[in-house]
Amino acid sequence: MRYLKWILRIILVTAVFGFLHYTLPQRDIVRITDTYEKRIDFGTNSMFWAKGDSGNASSTTNRDVFFIQAFRQNDKPMIYRNEDTGFGWPLYFKFDTANLQAEASDMISKKNDAAPQWVVVRHYGWRNEYLSIYPNALSIRAIDDPNIRLIPWGNIIRLTLLAAFFWAIWVRWARFRRARIDPKVERIDDWIDEKLGR
């Protein structure tokens, strides 16, 4: 029974960590090399894409999606999708897909340029080549130095507030259990012991 509890705890912690890692915004320093639009047929990975009615399409099995191709400083490619999130999950309320695509097109820079243009791409989601999953770009801003240190203050504040919220719930539950549940369980145990003559 002890192993089952630990397995369930590990599964729960992994699920919460995965959910937070997917939905909280992240930032990458990249060099944009191309932007394009592609018709996507949604299949088993459709849960990783924005809702069909976030933009102007509704209940379609395929639609055009903007993409942004980029390279990291270590010359590894990174591809972002560029979709409106609308009022769905996660709650980023992104409605400026076309504007973001225009900004990305304006910041295209090649590897052999004298001074390549580096940008910070704020996004959520994961990149998985085998499942064709792409992170969704939320914003782009140009930077002068690709070696700047990005401190995720927004995520630090969000995680602190989330931890405080769950700690407050746990403290209240522990007090409630000590005050209401434990005494009743003890009375039931005493009653069982009395009936059984222990």
Keywords:
5-stranded antiparallel β-sheet; alpha+beta; 24% strand; 2 domains; 198 residues; 5 strands
Question: Could you characterize what this model shows?
Answer:
It is a single chain. The chain is an alpha+beta fold. It has two domains: 24-150; 151-198. It is built from three helices and five strands. It has helices spanning 2-23, 97-106, 153-196; strands at 26-41, 62-72, 77-82, 118-124, 136-143. It has a five-stranded antiparallel sheet. The chain starts with a helix and ends with a helix. 16% of the residues are buried. The model has no long low-confidence stretch (mean pLDDT 87).
Please outline the helices and strands.
Blueprint: H1 2-23, E1 26-41, E2 62-72, E3 77-82, H2 97-106, E4 118-124, E5 136-143, H3 153-196
Antiparallel strand pairs: 1-2, 1-4, 2-3, 4-5
The first-to-last residue Cα distance is 27 Å
Query: Helical region count?
Result: 3
Total number of distinct structural domains: 2
Structural class estimated from helices and strands = alpha+beta
Uncertain spans, ≥5 residues at pLDDT below 50?
Answer: none
Extended strand count: 5
Overall geometric form = elongated
Q: In percent, how helical is the residue content? A: 25-40%
